[in-house]
């Protein structure tokens, strides 16, 4: 979706402000949110793409006006509500008001935490051959889906070069369209800064995106 | 607090009064616990992992090893997941970690313009600035300006390559080994490797900075 989350190339957000000796969490609740997100992830009811889309779907002002972990918390609430795991009334009351929904997965115990501390693999086997090879010139398609995509707006319509083939991976756009994983080849595609931003751009700038095969046409 | 503060934390950071977010998250955790969906002890453990075990010290060990050991460096650039996992003391790294090497001709910088993708297994949790709108918006259009915010200026002839983490691949920058470190042990080299040098927004410390 062409949302405010797709920020590459926007102006006006000001300077980057590094913080010396930044702690892992600035408030206790932030750590709880991270832990709860991980602990509820094991239910297998949503994958990383569905989690991302729930954040992208926050109202633009909420998205821009909320800290990172607040966005996480709001996105998690929306997923829990959408799957009927909790009710609005329960969140308002701060207590369970009815029986839990039966889940097919066991709840995460402290002893089993290690398994949520390694990222899962999104690579999938395929019989298809990759359409592109390193060195190929490609054009990012001008797509504007209302649903989830991982092709940023700034790359759309621009011509770049395939630098690497990264394997075949779960295709986020398909997941959010309800089409299952529909794995696709993934490429690192490099664009010259001037191709993306015009003649005024830094001649020494190159930007790459990780692009799924359906995002690309030969150029 | 840094650039991404929101209106919901203020009471919490002021002290005694609970913020809206404290109350909201407590309510959520209580509901999920009472319903039997989560075990608060598991949440405690996850928080503890992120506060203690996971962090940029893991990535620094990978970088220092690559500086000291040419064979390891080759393996790292070939398959960073396998190379990092071959070091027993680094927390386990999932698929698809990719190490990108800085050279005198090219400086690499990592961003996620769409969300906050970050190689947390080797660098820990991303800093607030990495997840902030200023960084996500500017890194791909004005990386030299971003570097200036970090007090870094590179010669104009050095190419800047920005890696936008738009899929499940994750990147770590392998910075150039600082001059004047010939013969240094891996343990000593580790001290030169900063988190931000592995994101590409700063350079590793020089031996002189280490003494300062």
Share of residues in helices of chain B: 40-55%
Main interface pair? A-B, 98 and 92 residues
Sheet with the most strands: spatial strand order of chain B: 1-4
Percent of residues in helices of chain A comes to 25-40%
| Tally of contiguous helical segments of chain A | 7
Shape of chain B: globular
Query: How many strands, what sense, and barrel or not for the largest sheet of chain B?
Result: 2 strands, parallel
Provide the descriptors you would attach to this structure in a database record.
heterodimer; A: 219 residues; alpha+beta; five-stranded antiparallel beta sheet; 7 helices; 27% helix; globular; B: 212 residues; mainly alpha; two-stranded parallel sheet; 13 helices
Write up this protein.
The complex is a heterodimer of chains A (219) and B (212). Chain A is of the alpha+beta class and 219 residues long. Helices cover 27% and strands 16% of the residues of chain A. Chain A is built from 7 helices and 5 strands; from the N terminus they run αααααββαβαββ. Chain A has a 5-stranded antiparallel beta sheet with strand order 4-3-2-1-5. Chain B has 212 residues and is mainly alpha-helical. Chain B contains 13 helices and 4 strands. Chain B has a two-stranded parallel sheet with strand order 1-4. The two termini of chain B are 27 Å apart. At the A-B interface, helix 1, helix 2, helix 4, helix 5 and strand 2 of A face helix 2, helix 3, helix 8, helix 9 and helix 10 of B.
Summary?
The complex is a heterodimer of chains A (219) and B (212). Chain A has 219 residues and is of the alpha+beta class.
Q: How do the helices and strands line up, and which of them pair or pack?
A:
The complex is a heterodimer of chains A (219) and B (212).
Chain A: H1 28-41, H2 48-56, H3 60-65, H4 68-82, H5 88-93, E1 137-140, E2 159-169, H6 172-176, E3 184-192, H7 193-197, E4 205-212, E5 216-218
Antiparallel strand pairs in A: 1-2, 1-5, 2-3, 3-4
Helix pairs in contact in A: 1-4, 2-4
Chain B: H1 10-14, H2 20-34, H3 40-53, H4 56-68, H5 70-78, H6 80-85, E1 97-101, E2 106-111, H7 120-123, H8 128-131, H9 133-138, H10 143-149, E3 159-164, E4 170-174, H11 186-190, H12 195-199, H13 207-211
Parallel strand pairs in B: 1-4, 2-3
Helix pairs in contact in B: 4-5
